[in-house]
């Protein structure tokens, strides 16, 4: 599947953004051959399973110019890199505790010329900064994840949603949500994307402050 699926759903892309999305496949194939950050079977479905999936968050919210977004456990750069392409005036900090993955993310951000991305080899708990939103893709169960990031939010809200967590998740979340005991909203990605892959995929929004 090609990058055309991105411009199908996001029709306002600039020529620069289109070129950046187009470049992702070759960059990830090149780096994945050296350091395995995406499963071999998934690399062929990069635009569907990784790029478009990451951009599910952009169906829920438009990040504003100057906003600060933290991507926790970014792995190979998801959802942070696709979101940073889509929102070039928003600032993204991508962190992961695995150094070799961060090396790949830094190289890809550099190759794409993403001036709005910073990359850090760190755990979420060690980041000493405040953010509008924390994004992530199924790093762990919600309860421990919330504990990692709960004190990292700015007080002032400037978006259509109050500051908080936007977590890409799949499957049945009933037990996990019960365990976390947090106010939440679930957005079903099948309502935004027609591909079968999104049938069970969701964006889980947890506001930071009651």
Descriptive report:
α2 (15-32) packs antiparallel against α7 and α8 packs across α9 (174-180). It is globular and about 40 Å long. Strands 3-2-1-4-5-7-6 form a seven-stranded mixed sheet. The relative contact order is 0.15. It has nine helices and seven strands. The protein has 210 residues and is α/β, with parallel strands linked by helices. β2, α7 and β3 form a beta-alpha-beta unit. The mean pLDDT is 93.
Comma- or semicolon-separated keywords:
alpha/beta; seven-stranded mixed β-sheet; 9 helices; 19% strand
For the termini, the CA-CA separation is 42 Å
Query: Using DSSP, what is the number of strands?
Result: 7
Total of helices: 9
Q: Strand arrangement, largest sheet?
A: 3-2-1-4-5-7-6
Largest sheet: 7 strands, mixed
Please indicate the percent range of residues in DSSP E strands (runs of 2 or more): 15-25%
Helical residue percent band: 25-40%
Write down the overall mean pLDDT.
93
User: What's the gyration radius in Å?
Assistant: 16 Å
Return residue spans where pLDDT drops below 50 for at least 5 consecutive residues.
none
- Coarse shape: globular
- By helix and strand content, what is the structural category? alpha/beta
Order of helices and strands: HHHHHEHEHEEHEHEE
């Amino acid at each position: 599947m090609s990058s055309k699926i991105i411009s199908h759903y996001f029709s306002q892309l600039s020529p620069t953004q289109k070129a950046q999305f187009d470049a992702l496949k070759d960059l990830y194939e090149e780096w994945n051959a050296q350091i395995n950050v995406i499963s071999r079977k998934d690399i062929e479905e990069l635009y569907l399973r990784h790029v478009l999936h990451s951009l599910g968050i952009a169906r829920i919210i438009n990040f504003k110019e100057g906003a600060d977004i933290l991507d926790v456990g970014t792995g190979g750069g998801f959802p942070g890199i696709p979101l940073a392409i889509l929102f070039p005036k928003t600032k993204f900090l991508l962190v992961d505790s695995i150094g070799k993955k961060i090396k790949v993310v830094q190289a890809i951000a550099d190759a794409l010329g993403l001036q709005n991305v910073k990359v850090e080899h760190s755990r979420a708990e060690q980041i000493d900064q405040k953010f509008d939103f924390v994004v992530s893709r199924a790093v762990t169960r919600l309860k421990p994840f919330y504990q990692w990031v709960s004190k990292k939010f700015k007080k002032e809200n400037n978006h259509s949603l109050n500051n908080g967590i936007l977590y890409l998740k799949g499957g049945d979340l009933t037990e996990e949500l019960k365990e976390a005991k947090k106010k939440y909203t679930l957005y079903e990605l099948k309502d935004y994307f027609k591909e079968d892959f999104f049938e069970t995929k969701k964006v889980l929004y947890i506001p930071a402050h009651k």
